[in-house]
């Protein structure tokens, strides 16, 4: 960690939506009178029936109820499209950059976005989808993914996107979990020169699910797919026949806009539910202020729409602001390690937003891949998903930004809908590695982890919680409000618990120290250790498994699995490979263990609880400080684990 500060330049501050004085004044107003502040800023979107109530939120355990703008009605897709299609029909809404650099990029205007979204909406209606129905999207990063999201919003259906890297089993669980009526997929997803067979995966997912789920298939590569008449529908054929206008449905501010499954510390992923009104206000406002977005800027967020970052900062935030947003189908290293910068040059990108893991990977390839491109269009750089180490921050600042672009390190979560801790580039002096200060309306608190007491000294270290609510906050776990209350509001009464640890320095800057629960962060993606464990024990040779994270140079954290085999099963290299492959197919490539250690036994307390603290230490190659091991049922298992540890510095 470095305490060097980088103040905004006077020039940047002068043209920014917020300079330091504006930030201070707006922040103070937002927390002293949230009702008035959000009442005013809610007007940034168009309401069909304006709200008269702004905020109605309760965190009493057993009775957590969060409502914003509750009597207002609106349509999210009309906000993201129609008002801009009326004002600036020819403005580019989406720039699509395909996986293959030789395939031409496409510029989709707001007028075309309206037509295409309407066609998709009418096709969905034709399949019987209506208000409140769930639609799962399992798509490549193609414009149809945005059309599908906005089409659901247009007719009041609730979308749930499943990242195209997830396996058929994971997809199936999510389709069943939200009881979807339709799944929208494509024949194949080109990525990094390879093709993922999305339709084939969907076929497998639908084998063990609810009958009656319809499958709408978008043509991307034209790759052959099997076809089941009556279940499978050809999107391109239906869209060609569909009307180019669909009337937007009038929705309540609190009607769910989407469900997004995310990993937690226990059990299977939970469906995070976001609202229509509050979510859109928050996504749009954070997009404008955090990235200092101005009209006619080209904004590029490199995330996939399968993650929350893609929801808020590829689609909803930028389009609500009438922005030009870039959608990239590929990966940073294809066809070579210069692809990001080639795309920045080609489309004259002004704001660029990516994950530290991508920067670390590219940093290792050498500066020549960056400096050969003209990056003078860049005005601002952003990061998200995990803490950024000072080396990567400095490289981003010096080599990519040429020392002229402010960096916004944005801390937030699937649950928060948008940025909660972030610099505002014209207002906040940045410190490499710190997400700095709260966004408007956000009240972070640092609690002592065991007592739950709030630490009021400015310099503090503990768990990060939030006091009170903000409009983009998740409203519930799909179908399980109890789980919502238990996960986020039971450990520390009266607060929203983030699951992250943090340090607040003497200047009041926040430094995220990582998860304090059994969630690991692999390449900026959240993975529940329990999910990987349950995949491992589902293999016939595995008796028991325990999974922890360990420091990884590129991924941030790697997945370290301790596996106890069934009696009589031989621990071979072949089996190790087989188990890696097994987890890939059970969950997806992102869950593949980096290291598997054969464990004759796992360290347990006498009551049978696995002592993960010890397993984490061994995985970190830091077993000198194992702490108290006196409660172990059989201390000798630890010696074996240390002796055969896989991560040796
Ligand atoms: C948006 C997103 C959330 C978890 C979060 C934290 C980590 C995200 C971070 C960060 C340090 C940042 N995280 N941004 N840690 N600095 N700027 O990533 O959502 O996938 O739900 O992950 O990611 O641990 O709790 P999600």
From TrEMBL:
Q: Which Pfam families does this UniProt record tie to the protein? A: ACAS_N, AMP-binding, AMP-binding_C
Enzyme Commission identifier(s):
6.2.1.1
What positions does the domain AMP-binding enzyme C-terminal occupy?
Answer: 531-609
SUPFAM superfamilies in UniProt? Acetyl-CoA synthetase-like (SSF56801)
Q: Where, by residue number, does CoA bind?
A: 191-194, 309, 523, 584
The UniProt record lists the Acetyl-coenzyme A synthetase N-terminal domain at 23-80
Positions of the AMP-dependent synthetase/ligase domain: 82-469
Which N-terminal stretch is annotated as signal sequence? none
Which annotated residues bind Mg(2+)?
Answer: 537, 539, 542
- Post-translational modifications: Acetylated. Deacetylation by the SIR2-homolog deacetylase activates the enzyme.
Q: What does this protein do?
A: Catalyzes the conversion of acetate into acetyl-CoA (AcCoA), an essential intermediate at the junction of anabolic and catabolic pathways. AcsA undergoes a two-step reaction. In the first half reaction, AcsA combines acetate with ATP to form acetyl-adenylate (AcAMP) intermediate. In the second half reaction, it can then transfer the acetyl group from AcAMP to the sulfhydryl group of CoA, forming the product AcCoA.
Q: Which NCBIfam families match?
A: Ac_CoA_lig_AcsA, PRK00174.1
Protein name (record): Acetyl-coenzyme A synthetase
Name the species this protein comes from: Thalassobacter stenotrophicus DSM 16310
What are the top taxonomic ranks of the organism?
A: Bacteria, Pseudomonadati, Pseudomonadota, Alphaproteobacteria, Rhodobacterales
């Amino acid at each position: 960690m470095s305490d060097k500060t980088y103040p905004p330049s006077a020039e940047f501050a002068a043209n920014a939506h917020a300079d330091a004085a504006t930030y201070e004044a707006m922040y103070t107003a937002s927390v002293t009178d949230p009702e008035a502040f959000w009442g005013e800023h809610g007007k940034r979107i168009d309401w069909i029936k304006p709200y008269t109530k702004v905020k109605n939120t309760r965190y009493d355990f057993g009775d957590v109820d969060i409502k914003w703008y509750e009597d207002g009605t609106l349509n999210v897709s009309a906000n993201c499209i129609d008002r801009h299609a009326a004002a600036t029909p020819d403005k580019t809404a989406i720039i699509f950059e395909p996986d293959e650099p030789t395939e031409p990029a496409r510029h989709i205007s707001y007028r075309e976005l309206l037509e295409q979204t309407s066609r998709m909406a009418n096709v969905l209606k034709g399949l019987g989808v209506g208000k409140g129905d769930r639609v799962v999207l399992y798509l490549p990063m193609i414009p149809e993914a945005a059309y599908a999201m906005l089409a659901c919003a247009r007719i009041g259906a609730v979308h749930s996107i499943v990242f195209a890297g997830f396996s058929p089993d994971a997809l199936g669980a999510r389709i069943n979990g939200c009881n979807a009526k339709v799944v929208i997929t494509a024949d194949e997803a080109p990525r990094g020169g390879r093709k993922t067979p999305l339709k084939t995966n969907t076929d497998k997912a639908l084998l063990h699910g609810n009958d009656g789920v319809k499958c709408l298939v978008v043509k991307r590569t034209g790759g052959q797919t099997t076809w089941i008449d009556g279940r499978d529908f050809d999107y391109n054929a239906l869209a060609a026949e569909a009307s180019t206008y669909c009337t937007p449905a009038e929705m309540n501010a609190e009607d769910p806009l989407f469900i997004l499954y995310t990993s937690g510390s226990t059990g299977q992923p939970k469906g995070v539910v976001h609202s229509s009104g509050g979510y859109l206000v928050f996504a749009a406002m954070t997009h404008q202020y955090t990235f200092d977005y101005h009209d006619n800027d080209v904004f590029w967020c490199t995330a996939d729409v399968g993650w929350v970052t893609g929801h808020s900062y590829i689609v909803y935030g930028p389009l609500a602001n009438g922005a030009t947003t870039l959608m990239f189908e590929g990966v940073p290293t294809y066809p070579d390690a210069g692809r990001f910068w080639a795309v920045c040059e080609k489309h004259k990108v002004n704001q660029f937003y990516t994950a530290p893991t991508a920067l670390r990977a590219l940093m290792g390839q050498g500066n020549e891949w960056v400096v050969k491109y003209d990056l003078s269009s860049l005005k601002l750089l952003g990061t998200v998903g995990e803490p950024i180490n000072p080396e990567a921050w400095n490289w981003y600042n010096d080599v990519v930004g040429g020392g002229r672009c402010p960096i916004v390190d944005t801390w937030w979560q699937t649950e928060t809908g948008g940025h909660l801790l972030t610099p505002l580039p014209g207002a906040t002096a940045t410190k490499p590695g710190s997400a700095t200060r709260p966004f408007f309306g956000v009240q972070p608190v640092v609690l002592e982890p065991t007592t739950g007491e709030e630490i009021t000294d400015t310099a503090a270290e503990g768990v990060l919680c939030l006091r009170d609510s903000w409009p983009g906050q998740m409203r519930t776990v799909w179908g399980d409000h109890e789980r919502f209350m238990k996960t986020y509001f039971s450990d520390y009464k009266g607060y929203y618990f983030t699951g992250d640890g943090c340090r607040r320095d003497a200047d009041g800057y926040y430094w995220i120290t990582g998860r304090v629960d059994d969630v690991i962060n692999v390449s900026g993606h959240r993975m529940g250790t329990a999910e990987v464990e349950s995949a491992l024990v589902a293999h016939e040779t595995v008796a028991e498994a325990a999974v922890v994270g360990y420091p990884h140079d590129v991924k941030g954290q790697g997945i370290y699995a301790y596996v106890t085999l069934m009696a009589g099963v031989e621990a071979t290299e072949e089996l190790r490979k087989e188990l890696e492959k097994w987890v890939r197919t059970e969950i997806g490539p992102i869950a593949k263990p980096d290291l598997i250690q054969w464990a004759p036994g796992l360290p347990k307390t006498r009551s049978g609880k696995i002592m993960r603290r010890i397993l984490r230490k061994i995985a970190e190659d830091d077993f000198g400080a194992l702490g108290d091991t006196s409660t172990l049922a059989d201390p000798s298992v630890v010696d074996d684990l240390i002796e055969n540890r896989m991560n040796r510095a």
